[in-house]
Design brief:
Strand content: 5-15%
CATH architecture of the largest domain: 3-Layer(aba) Sandwich
Distance between the termini: 96 Å
CATH class of the largest domain: Alpha Beta
Bound molecules: adenosine-5'-triphosphate, magnesium ion
Number of strands: 14
CATH topology of the largest domain: Rossmann fold
Helix content: 40-55%
Number of domains: 4
Structural class: alpha/beta
Largest sheet: 5 strands, parallel
CATH superfamily of the largest domain: P-loop containing nucleotide triphosphate hydrolases
Shape: flat
Length: 484
C-alpha cells in the first residue's frame, strides 16, 4: 500500500536496539512514510531540533537522554510532534508518566505491526486537526510566527528547564522566572503558555518597567470612562484581555509597592476592579512573572512585598546566564544561523566549526539576545556561504565597549568568576594596563617630539623605566631623537 503525498508522514525512530529500528523502518517505509532512525538520545534531540517530524517513536531507555526526557523537551519547546514511548518493561509508573507528559501512546515490546499502523493513523488525524487549529488561529490573527517560541538548548540546566516547563504547563500554578537580561525569560513564559491548555487563548505581556507607574494600574485593571483626566472611554485592562489565557508580568520587580498590594488582592480573589469602577469583575487568568532583580533582596530593602513574592514564586525557574552554560552556545548559534539565513538573507548559509568554537569562547554579557544579534549581523554582512571567525570580528569591539563601563577590578573579578586561570588574568591585567599606557606614552612623546628626558619628567618616572616601557610596548618614537 502506498501513501499519497499528504498522507505521507515524517517519522523518527529512536531506539538503541537495531532489530526494533529495522522492523519499524521496513513497515513504515513500505507504507510510504519518510523514516529517520537514530540509536541514542543525543541524536534523537539533534534530529528533532533540525527537522520537523509528525511522529517520533522513542525508546524509554537509550544512551544519552531517555524517551521521557525527550518528550518533555518537545512539549516544552511547543513542538507538535506526536510521541510514542516504547519500553521493554511495562511498569505503571512509566505508562502514567508517558501519558501525563503528553505522549500519544505507550507501547510495550514486543508489539505488532497492526498496532503501529493504528498509531500512524492517529498521528495523521491529529496532524489534520492541528493544521486546522493553526489555520483557525491564523484567521483569528492571534498567532505568533511559527517557531518563534522554540526554546533551544542542550545543557543540563536547559534540559531541567524544559522539563519544568512541561510540568508547570498543565497546572495553573504561578511561576516566577528569573535570569539576567537576554537569557530567555519571556521565551520560557511563552513556552509555558503554548504547552498549556490555554495555548489557543491570548498571551498578554505587560512590562512594569516600561509603563509610567501612574498609568500601570489602569493598564492592568482597566478604567471606567472619566475615571481620571484623559480617560475618555472605558478600558478593559490587560487582566481582562488575557481572560482564559496567560498574563505575563515582565519586570515585576519594578512594580510600585502600592500597586503590589492591589495585585496581591487580585491574585487572592481572582477579581479585578477597574480604576473608577465599583464592582469587582471575575477574571480567569494564569499569571507568569519575570524579573532580572533579586526579589529577596528587594524584600529585605522594603521594595517588594514578601507576601506577594511568596504568592508569585510557587514555582521558581532560574535561567542561568549563557556563560554558565557555554555548551548551549553552539546549539543556539546553529539554530539562529539556520533560522535567519532563510529569513534574512534568503539563502542557506552555514556556520563553520571554527566560528562555533570562537563563539563558545565569548563571554556574552547580553546572553542569548546578544548571540542572536551577532548571528544576524554576521549573516547580513557575510560575503561567503560559510560563516568564519572573521565574520564575528565586531564582537571584539563590543566586548571592549562592555568592559569600558566597568572598573578594572570588576572586570578582573568577573573574569576570575568565569573560570579564567590566574595566568590568563595576569595576561588580561597586563593588556589592560598596556591599553592605558600606550596612548598615554604616545601622546606625551609626541608632545615632547620624542624627547625621552622631558617625557619621563612629565610622567614622573625615571628615564630608564620609560625606555623599558617604550621597548616593551613597541612604541614608535616620533622625530629623530633616540638618544636625546
Ligand atoms: N533557549 C533559547 N532558544 C532560542 N532562542 C532563545 C533562547 N533564549 C533566548 N532566546 C532568544 O533571545 C532573545 C531574548 O530572549 P528573551 O526576550 O526571552 O529574554 P529576557 O530574559 O526576557 O530578556 P530581558 O530581561 O532583556 O527582557 C529572544 O529573541 C529569544 O527568542
Ligand atoms: Mg524580557
Amino acid at each position: 500500500m502506498n501513501a499519497t503525498a499528504e498522507s505521507r508522514l515524517a517519522v523518527l525512530i529512536a531506539d538503541d536496539e537495531e532489530s526494533i529500528r529495522f522492523v519499524l523502518r521496513e513497515a513504515l517505509e513500505a507504507e510510504g512514510h519518510r523514516v529517520n532512525e537514530v540509536a541514542d538520545g543525543e541524536s534523537a534531540l539533534d534530529a528533532l531540533s533540525s527537522d520537523q517530524f509528525d511522529i517520533a517513536f522513542l525508546d524509554i531507555r537509550m544512551p544519552g537522554h531517555s524517551g521521557l526526557e525527550i518528550l518533555d523537551q518537545l512539549r516544552a519547546t511547543g513542538s507538535n510532534t506526536a510521541v510514542v514511548i516504547i519500553t521493554a518493561q511495562n511498569t505503571m509508573e512509566n505508562a502514567v508518566e508517558a501519558m501525563k507528559r503528553g505522549a500519544l501512546d505507550y507501547l510495550v515490546k514486543p508489539f505488532s505491526l497492526a498496532q503501529i499502523s493504528a498509531l500512524i493513523e492517529r498521528a495523521r488525524s491529529t496532524r489534520v486537526l492541528r493544521d486546522e487549529v493553526r489555520e483557525l488561529r491564523r484567521e483569528a490573527g492571534g498567532s505568533q510566527r511559527p517557531g518563534s517560541e522554540r526554546l533551544v538548548g542542550r545543557s543540563d540546566a536547559m534540559l531541567d528547564i524544559f522539563k519544568l516547563v512541561g510540568k508547570v504547563a498543565v497546572r495553573n500554578v504561578p511561576v516566577l522566572i528569573t535570569g539576567e537580561s537576554g537569557t530567555g525569560k519571556e521565551l520560557v513564559a511563552r513556552a509555558i503558555h503554548s504547552a498549556s491548555p490555554r495555548s489557543n487563548r491570548a498571551f498578554v505581556t505587560v512590562n512594569a518597567a516600561a509603563i509610567p507607574s501612574e498609568l500601570l494600574e489602569s493598564e492592568l485593571f482597566g478604567h471606567e470612562r472619566g475615571a481620571f483626566t484623559g480617560a475618555i472611554s472605558t478600558r478593559l485592562g490587560r487582566f481582562r484581555e488575557a481572560s482564559g489565557g496567560t498574563l505575563f508580568l515582565d519586570e515585576i520587580g519594578d512594580m510600585p509597592i502600592g500597586l503590589q498590594a492591589k495585585l496581591l488582592r487580585v491574585l487572592q480573589n481572582g477579581e479585578v476592579t477597574p480604576v473608577g469602577g465599583r464592582d469587582p469583575i471575575f477574571v480567569d487568568v494564569r499569571v507568569i512573572t519575570a524579573t532580572h532583580h533579586n526579589l529577596d533582596e528587594a524584600v529585605s530593602h522594603g521594595n517588594f512585598r514578601e507576601d506577594l513574592l511568596y504568592r508569585l514564586r510557587v514555582v521558581p525557574i532560574e535561567i542561568p546566564s549563557l556563560r554558565e552554560r557555554a555548551e548551549d552556545v553552539r546549539t543556539l548559534a546553529e539554530f539562529f544561523t539556520h533560522r535567519y539565513s532563510t529569513e534574512l538573507v534568503e539563502e542557506s548559509i552555514e556556520i563553520s566549526e571554527k566560528a562555533l568554537s570562537y563563539l563558545e569562547k565569548q563571554r556574552w554579557p547580553g546572553n542569548v539576545r546578544e548571540l542572536e544579534n551577532a548571528i544576524k549581523r554576521a549573516l547580513v554582512l557575510a560575503s561567503t556561504k560559510v560563516l568564519s571567525p572573521t565574520d564575528f570580528n565586531f564582537l571584539e569591539d563590543s566586548s571592549r565597549r562592555h568592559g569600558g563601563g566597568q572598573s578594572l577590578e570588576d572586570l578582573i573579578v568577573a573574569r576570575v568568576r568565569d573560570g579564567l586561570s590566574e595566568d590568563k588574568v595576569t595576561d588580561l591585567h597586563r593588556k589592560l594596563i598596556e591599553s592605558v599606557e600606550r596612548p598615554l606614552l604616545d601622546t606625551i612623546l609626541k608632545h615632547t617630539d620624542g624627547n625621552q628626558i622631558r617625557a619621563a619628567a612629565l610622567l614622573g618616572i625615571n628615564r630608564n623605566t620609560l625606555r623599558k616601557k617604550i621597548v616593551e610596548l613597541g612604541i614608535e618614537l616620533p622625530g629623530k631623537d633616540e638618544s636625546a
